[in-house]
Amino acid sequence: MPDRLRSLRDTTLYGLALLGTGLVALVPASLVDALAARVGRLVYRRAGARADRLRANLRVVVGADAPDSQVESLAAGVYAAYGQYLAEFFTMHWPDLWGRRRRLVVDETTLREAKRQGNGVVLFGIHAGNWDLAASECARRYGAFHSAGESVEPAWLGLLSNRVRRGAGTRLYDPMNAARPLLRALRDGDIIGLVADRAVAGPGVDVELCGRVARLPVGPVWLALRNGAPMLPTAIERQPDGTVFVEFLDQVELSDLKPNTEGIAIGVQRMADALTVLIRRAYPSWFALQEVWTDDG
Length: 297
Description:
This protein has a 7-stranded mixed β-sheet, sandwiched between helices. Helices cover 50% and strands 16% of the residues. The protein has 297 residues and is α/β, with parallel strands linked by helices. It is globular and about 50 Å long.
């Protein structure tokens, strides 16, 4: 397809999708969420390799001896939670007519104390609950939130995802060129947030995660070490009643490390230890649809 036609197609699809999200935002949230969860479970039945990967990842967390029925139920629940996440995500940049933000419960004590240090804050977490809604709330309460966005295909969907995140208050940077603006944000005393349960772009280090070998990104640790910023694990859990609970845990100790290869490797392992806690805590809504562990055989 010629580039001009491809661009016209993507622009048209982007506009239609944006209009669609606005229409969804007008529908009562309780109806949208129920439908989204149901659609998520239906998609799970036809998810094929992704569902297989999710079940394998969940089995690492709940144990090899867990009954197949338990793993199956957990995986279907993850897809239902993912459907609810998408409904929240694609409507969060529109006016909150149905009080979606009221379902967000935030314990920000640790974050507030870390912010007072003046070196910025590095938040990190896993693909669970609703990281984007939590980021938007941080931007609302603290004035700025910075992150690096994964590349999304097709192009029109990437445009829409970036529009939603920026419209909800996140200052988003290309993952391959994010180091400089994120470091500048820390030097300005701002908050940055990165999802760190797999290395998506840039270098990674092999560490132990939940007792297995996984490759995790070095970015959060490198940024924290370069600016002396506190680095906080961020727990985001979707409760059975629809509440999304956000808690900032105690910071990862990095003061004894230098921003060199050895120091970063040690720091990433400490980050992995904190991520293990987050995964074991929030796995019922952990969107682990890709490979996590590299020792899978």
